[in-house]
Amino acid sequence: xxxxxxxxxxxxxxxxxxxxxKGISYDLVPVNLIKDGGxxxxxxxxxxxxxxxxxxxxxxxxxxxxSLAIINYLEETHPNPRLLPQDPKKRAxxxxxxxxxxxxxxxLQNLNVLKQMGEKKMEWAQNCxxxxxxxxEQILQHTSGRYCVGDxxxxxxxxxxxxxxxxxxxxxxxxxxxxxxxINKALLELEAFKIxxxxxxxxxxxxxxx
Length: 210
Hints:
By secondary structure, the protein is α+β, with helices and mostly antiparallel strands. The chain has two domains: 2-80, Glutaredoxin (3-Layer(aba) Sandwich), CATH 3.40.30; 88-193, Glutathione S-transferase Yfyf (Class Pi), Chain A, domain 2 (Up-down Bundle), CATH 1.20.1050.10. The protein has nine helices and four strands, in the order βαβαββααααααα. The protein has a four-stranded mixed beta sheet with strand order 2-1-3-4, covered by helices on one side. Helix 1 (10-21) links the parallel strand 1 and strand 2. The mean pLDDT is 97. Belongs to the GST superfamily. Zeta family. Residues 1-82 form the GST N-terminal domain. Residues 87-206 form the GST C-terminal domain. Keywords: Cytoplasm, Isomerase, Phenylalanine catabolism, Transferase, Tyrosine catabolism. Pathway: Amino-acid degradation; L-phenylalanine degradation; acetoacetate and fumarate from L-phenylalanine: step 5/6.
């Protein structure tokens, strides 16, 4: 497999965690979203992913984009360890939390949107993440055990950790979200989350390396 990734892309990080958890080795091709006006806009990368976004994964003779689509494929082809619970209600909760982050928070504070916001980009990102985290905190108080849904790592956890990293980058006050903080801390102790961290990627700038 070949993963097209950017060290700080939260969508790419989700997929790196999934690959690490499932023990799938891969080659990484960095796509710098800032350099050269954004390498994702090159004709070469557009041919790979017409949406001009990372991640993209070449695997089993197919090229996939969109992090949850990739993770779902990995789940179906490499079912152990599972990232979706067997219980239908818990499975729905995992998907709900993942969608909450992937659709309801992250795109609103993504690079493309922030470019449009000019000087207000920090304030905009903080507002988007804060409103999303207020809801997420309430949800997790009902669903969580050690992790987002019960005590098993799930797709929801793969979405949570990169979003907390974004919140910290944008200097969001995390004080009101003790459940999010607790789960995030527990997840960051796991090897798959450590090795996939933005501070430990081949394309991480020297000043941001762990």
